[in-house]
Amino acid sequence: MKSVISELSVLVTDDSLTQRQYAKELCNDLGVKDLHDAANGVDALSVLEARPVDVVLIDLEMPIMDGVELIRSIAQKKIASSVIILSAKDPILIASVGTMAEADGLHVLGTFQKPLLPDALECSFLRFIHDAKQQAQEPKPAPENEVTAVELGEALANGELSLAYQPKLTVHGLMLKGVEALARWRHPQKGMISPGVFIPLAERHGMIDMLTRHLLNVAFQHKKNWQNYGLRFNLAFNLSPLSLADSDMVDWLCKLAEDYGIAPSEITFEITENALLGELASAIRTLARLRLKGFHISIDDYGTGFANAQQLSRVPATELKIDRSLVHRSAARPQQHTILASTVDLAKNLNLTTVAEGVETAEDYKIIFDLGVDLVQGYYFSKPLFPDDLLAFIKTGLNQVRKQNEIK
Ligand code: C2E
Ligand code: CA
Ligand code: CA
Fold first, then answer.
1. What are the CA-CA distances from residue 258 to residues 163, 231, 250 (Å)?
2. Nearest CA to ligand 1 atom 44
3. Cα–ligand 1 centroid distance for 94 (angstroms)
4. pTM for the whole thing?
5. Which atom of ligand 1 is the closest one to the Cα of 380?
6. Mean per-residue pLDDT for 93-106?
């Protein structure tokens, strides 16, 4: 584990010799000894293929292979994980490339307009060191939780799949507005399997409808139990883009709500932004029908995909969930903050309820509060909870959260 900047290995990628030397000098001044450079994306890839490097500085405008292509290749080949993005272009462009890189799974230490300043570079290096330390302290994930479609089928039959619920709170007053249902799979031998693994598996193997219908029954049963205790709050459920193409889904959902005695107006379906880019017409047909029946529609992970304002305005949505990559740490990233603020504005102009997800710190919460976002969700308030723990949170945990945030 690296504990000081002098132990870092750094690759500077820039086509301009002057800029390259300038960046290398800054690194040198900060004590970096293991320093490499490349004049374009192709050279950078060969450096990275030859040796591991901790941090890659990437200039966006380069001939042969530009910074955007380089970032893609690094992410695909998994030959580096932490990058700093630089450009002489406008801050919005740089920040959007940063968002793209994060969506590709890279760790973006900073996105800066040139000239690169020594303080900014030092901060980025320190962030790398801080995060590396944290990672070393976290328990290692189970050896690659590889699972097969057959195992998933068995899990469905054996009732190994369940739901955890993460509170969605009002920004003002931190009142419980609703919960988001998140699928959980505890494999008897392999432990917890992430939905990031088994949902795509189900989608690839034609099992997503079966899985969705099973989990919806579980969720509606829970909601009915809460209603019986006198607890009424919204239930949000993630729908796969594939479910939007399933023409029977809407009627099936209406019947399910009726069977459980649940008002559609207390249910929100979360659809990722990218689901709206594919089979747009059929997706909109399903969403429009769900809206007509009274269900709410939320556009999830907004900010990671490429839906534009016009596409957004065509979707019969009621809520916009701003992705964690825009929310978390935006206090320290001016460009990201600008995009966040304009996203909130856009949502308000479209009359959508705004939700910030991935609020992890008091600092994140403050930014969201100041921007006038409606709802918050994130580890800072609560992790996803199984039903018993959710009840305890509603009874006592929520008051503690309010107290910590000085809400009476
Ligand atoms: P999502 O819909 O964006 O859900 C939010 C994810 O962020 C959840 O991960 C949640 O545990 C995590 N999260 C919440 N607060 C924070 C925070 O403050 N910081 C960080 N770093 N993470 C936070 P999870 O449960 O692993 O779910 C991953 C994804 O799997 C979900 O992303 C959703 O797209 C998908 N998914 C989960 N359950 C279902 C389901 O029942 N059906 C479908 N189709 N997809 C599901
Ligand atoms: Ca979601
Ligand atoms: Ca999300």
1. 21, 18, 12
2. 240
3. 27
4. 0.72
5. 18
6. 83
